[in-house]
Design brief:
Largest interface: A-B, 71 and 77 residues
CATH class of the domain at 169-302 in chain B: Mainly Alpha
Number of helices of chain B: 15
Structural class of chain A: mainly alpha
Helix content of chain B: over 70%
Number of strands of chain B: 0
Strand content of chain A: under 5%
Shape of chain A: elongated
Structural class of chain B: mainly alpha
Oligomer: heterodimer
Largest sheet of chain B: none
Shape of chain B: globular
Number of strands of chain A: 0
Radius of gyration of chain B: 22 Å
Largest sheet of chain A: none
Distance between the termini of chain B: 27 Å
CATH topology of the domain at 169-302 in chain B: Four Helix Bundle (Hemerythrin (Met), subunit A)
Number of helices of chain A: 4
Chain lengths: 108, 465
């Protein structure tokens, strides 16, 4: 490629990213935690375990799978450079379009 | 604009033929099948709306009874229109994102044919009264094992491309690899658990999860995945923050699945599950906010694209509708709000805005961008028809949405005041009339688009030299 992307121009401030990530985590964990606490209370006090077991197990099953996926991704360095994939995908598509005879400069 | 000069991630990759990666005929076939089911499902919706106006054209005909036609409308949209469009979109996006073809071209065609069989079997089953008592999962019981097998094959076919990747995954790929097993699990849960193992109120909780997860774990991740692919490609610039998009993805993955019970507030389902669903839903609003901010920040400096680029306009109007539906969600999951809107047309308006205003609009954006290229045309047959398609759809959708939202409030307050049932019916009639007319506008728009598609595909003067 003859030209380069101005990467600074297309980058969100890091602090914004952290605030949003923490926000999602705290609110999400609050929802999850309160659900789990009430579930345990229902099992012990209200004896409604049978009723709630399937939805809760279903969630646990899916969440466990995603926890494994998250761990696998982190171990394989998927989060080392968070912004790199967005430039790569654009580059690949441009190359593929060039093969098809489509000129990005004209389309832009 | 300038472009990236990042070092090649996969030196061994072969981009010598984009056609070798993507089967254009297969994608076209999916899009055409999707569009045909879309028209059928829309007509079924229009027909069903006439029942509310006491002008149903087939009174007493069991095969076309309104209840069955309604199921044709909802299932046709989900499995005929959206699923086919998404499968076509995935066949385009996944190989181009991974630079690896799908597992097998023959398997892809087999899945395409089998999926049309599943949808047609569902249509036949619904019309002949073989529906399951599961909202959106009414597919006849004999279809379910075939559909599960089909979804497994779909997963294997696309995941093979992903697992052969050697680079960090772009957010679209994350969404796709999540959606494929999620859809399989969700379909299995909704169609087998309730049918064979769980009864009573517990089945209500499962059905709530099923309906919501079908939107949140099938339609949403594939929809967002495709948006994260098409928007940067069309704007020719990267998404504003890939890190933020991953926050959105992992937030959806961990905190979405238990929201479904918010569809069943004030039911015999234990209150702790209802309260939990309310809190989790509000948490997911945070996730939604990250996605919305990311896309609108990506548009910064390219706002003119909304005016001159029709696919981008479809995508971003759909995104405004998405934000609207999520804002509605934040309110309508509260018990206070539910006292008024429960069982009313408010919910119907919300559902139409989600399925047509958001995902339908994104699919139309994808069709508008890709279709001429898929059929080897240099441009659309008529830009004017495309403009009519957009404006009639958008105006029709807006009218239908506001009409049903207001109708829902009128009904809710009348019921709260213990007005007699007939009074609420009389009050609803003008709203139902407007709903039918706005729906007619939407249907006309799609016929115009269908004609444009046909002419674009067949007009030889549009072929590349």
């Amino acid at each position: 490629m003859a030209t380069t992307v101005n990467k600074k121009k297309y980058k969100a401030p890091r602090v914004f990213l952290i605030v949003m990530a923490v926000g999602v985590f705290i609110t999400g964990m609050y929802g999850f935690g309160s659900k789990l606490e009430q579930f345990i209370r229902a099992v012990i006090v209200e004896n409604e375990a049978d009723f709630t077991l399937i939805p809760v197990l279903n969630y646990m099953f899916a969440a466990a799978g995603f926890l494994c996926l998250f761990g696998w991704a982190a171990k394989n360095g998927m989060f080392k450079d968070l912004e790199k994939p967005k430039y790569d995908m654009l580059e690949y598509d441009r190359e593929l379009d060039e093969v098809d005879g489509i000129d990005w400069e004209k389309q832009a | 604009m300038t472009t990236a000069a990042s070092p090649p991630l996969m030196p061994a990759r072969d981009t010598s033929g984009a056609h070798a990666l993507v089967d254009h005929k297969l994608v076209t076939s999916y899009f055409v099948a999707s569009f045909v089911y879309y028209i059928i499902a829309l007509l079924a919706g229009g027909l069903y709306s006439m029942q509310f106006l006491q002008h149903y054209p087939f009174p007493g005909a069991e095969l076309f009874s309104p209840g069955r036609i309604r199921m044709l409308h909802t299932n046709g949209m989900a499995y005929g229109f959206i699923a086919n469009a998404f499968l076509g979109g995935l066949h385009w996006a996944v190989p181009r994102l991974t630079l690896r073809p799908v597992l097998s071209a023959k398997l892809s065609w087999f899945i395409f044919i089998a999926w049309q069989g599943i949808v047609l079997g569902t249509v036949g089953g619904l019309l002949t009264g073989q529906a399951q008592a599961v909202e959106w999962g009414e597919t006849p019981v004999w279809i379910d094992p075939v559909a599960v097998l089909g979804l497994t094959l779909v997963g294997a076919n696309f995941l093979a491309s992903v697992f052969r990747m050697r680079s960090s995954m772009y957010v679209s790929v994350w969404y796709f690899i999540a959606a494929l097993p999620w859809t399989l699990l969700t379909y299995t849960m909704g169609n087998f658990f309730v049918e064979y193992w769980i009864g009573g109120t517990a089945s209500g909780a499962i059905i709530g999860l099923f309906i919501h997860d079908l939107v949140g774990l099938f339609v949403t991740p594939i929809g967002w995945g495709l948006m994260y692919y098409f928007v940067p490609i069309i704007l020719k610039k990267p998404i504003w923050s890939h890190g933020l998009s991953l926050v959105g993805f992992w937030g959806l993955a961990f905190f979405y699945p238990l929201n479904g019970i918010h569809h069943f507030l004030y039911t015999p389902i234990p209150m702790f599950l209802q309260h939990g669903a309310i809190v989790a839903t509000i948490a997911v609003e945070f996730v939604v906010t990250t996605v919305i901010i990311n896309f609108f920040m990506t548009l910064r400096g390219s706002g003119d694209a909304l005016r001159r680029n029709l696919p981008i306009r479809w995508f971003y109007v759909g995104m405004v509708f998405y934000f609207t539906t999520c804002l509605q969600c934040a309110f309508q999951v509260t018990l206070t709000f539910q006292k008024i809107i429960h069982f009313s047309d408010w919910v119907v308006g919300h559902a139409h805005l989600v399925m047509f205003g958001v995902f339908g609009f994104w699919i139309m954006g994808m069709f508008t961008y890709l279709f001429p290229r898929l059929v080897g045309a240099t441009r659309w047959y008529s830009d004017k028809l495309n403009a009519w398609h957009f404006w009639l759809s958008a105006i029709g959708m807006l009218i239908m949405f506001f009409d049903l939202v207001i109708a829902g409030l009128v009904q809710g307050f009348l019921w709260k005041d213990l007005a007699i049932w007939e009074e609420s019916l009389r009050a609803s009639m003008p709203f139902w009339m407007i709903r039918s007319w706005s729906g007619l506008g939407i249907i006309v728009a799609q016929f115009l688009f269908g004609w444009n598609m046909y002419k674009t595909a067949t007009d030889r003067s549009l072929r590349a030299a």
